[in-house]
Amino acid sequence: MRLDHTGIAVRRIDEAIEFYTNVLGGKLTERYTSEKPGVETHIAVIEMENQVIELLEPTSRTSPIERFIRQNGKGVHHLAYEVDNLLETIKDFESRGYTFLKDTYRINPFGRRLIYMNPVHSQGQIIELCDYVSLDE
Questions:
Q1: What residues contact 37, with CB distance under 8 A and at least 6 apart?
Q2: Three-state SS for 62?
Q3: Bridge partners (DSSP) listed for residue 2
Q4: Which of 14, 11, 54, 58 is nearest to 38 (CA)?
């Protein structure tokens, strides 16, 4: 398991992209919007030397990112860890008593399969587990 990316909740994604690219020298590699219920977020992926930042701006008042910002303010939303096989990892973790927020399971437009763990297991920190699959699967 390795750190895949850090998700950061922001209010103004264009300003955040400007900062991470022009000030910190990152490169914008993906930008898209997910209007799926339970996501409702503008997403920008910034690659920096050995790290990836995922900027998250809510697109509606019902977005989980909007709820996060109201409760916690802007900043680190989640840490994402890449696993070899997401479905096998979920089964393994569940067999050991860990639970997941099942409604968060999805495949993003770039082939990242992901799910969020129940934050009760991580002292409140939101943890995403992910792997990468072919979009043809």
A1: 62
A2: coil
A3: 82
A4: 58
Distances (CA, A) of 2 to 74, 79, 80, 112: 25, 10, 9, 14
Which amino acid appears at position 19 of this protein? F
Separation between Cα atoms, residue 108 and residue 112, nearest integer Å: 5
At residue 110, the pLDDT reads 86
SS3 37: coil
Mind listing the domains of the chain with CATH numbers?
2-132 (3.10.180.10)
**Do the Cβ atoms of 32 and 91 come closer than 8 Å?**
no
Summarised one tens digit per residue, pLDDT across range 28-82 is: 999 999 988 888 999 999 999 999 999 999 999 999 999 999 999 999 999 999 9
What would the 3-class secondary structure string for 104-126 be?
A: EEEECCCCEEEEEECHHHHCCCE
Is 121 exposed, middle or buried (CB count within 10 Å of its CB: 0-12, 13-18, 19+)? Answer: middle
